[in-house]
Amino acid sequence: MFKKSVILAIKFYRRWISPLKRPSCRFYPTCSQYAIDAVNKYGAAKGILMSIKRLLKCHPFHPGGYDPVK
């Protein structure tokens, strides 16, 4: 139940908030897709922690690149 709520919140962000900003994700897959994949694979708690770690790496001084959920 919580897992579905987290994914719904991410999809809401992607649909309504993300289009208001310029594209800036330096990773593939995007941070929001990474979050959905992490929550689906590891559950809500660990998926959220993995997503936060990924978001903290998303800054101009990190090279980015291909970084799938492992």
TrEMBL record:
Pfam families reported in the protein's UniProt record? YidD
Entry's family note: Belongs to the UPF0161 family.
Primary role = Could be involved in insertion of integral membrane proteins into the membrane.
Any one cellular component term from GO for this entry?
Answer: plasma membrane
The annotated topology with respect to the bilayer is: Peripheral membrane protein
Q: Which PANTHER family match?
A: MEMBRANE PROTEIN INSERTION EFFICIENCY FACTOR-RELATED (PTHR33383)
| Places the protein is found | Cell membrane
Keyword Cell membrane attached: yes
**What is the protein's major site of localization?**
membrane
Q: Which domain of life is it from?
A: Bacteria
Task: Specify the protein name.
Answer: Putative membrane protein insertion efficiency factor
UniProt keywords (A-Z) are: Cell membrane, Membrane
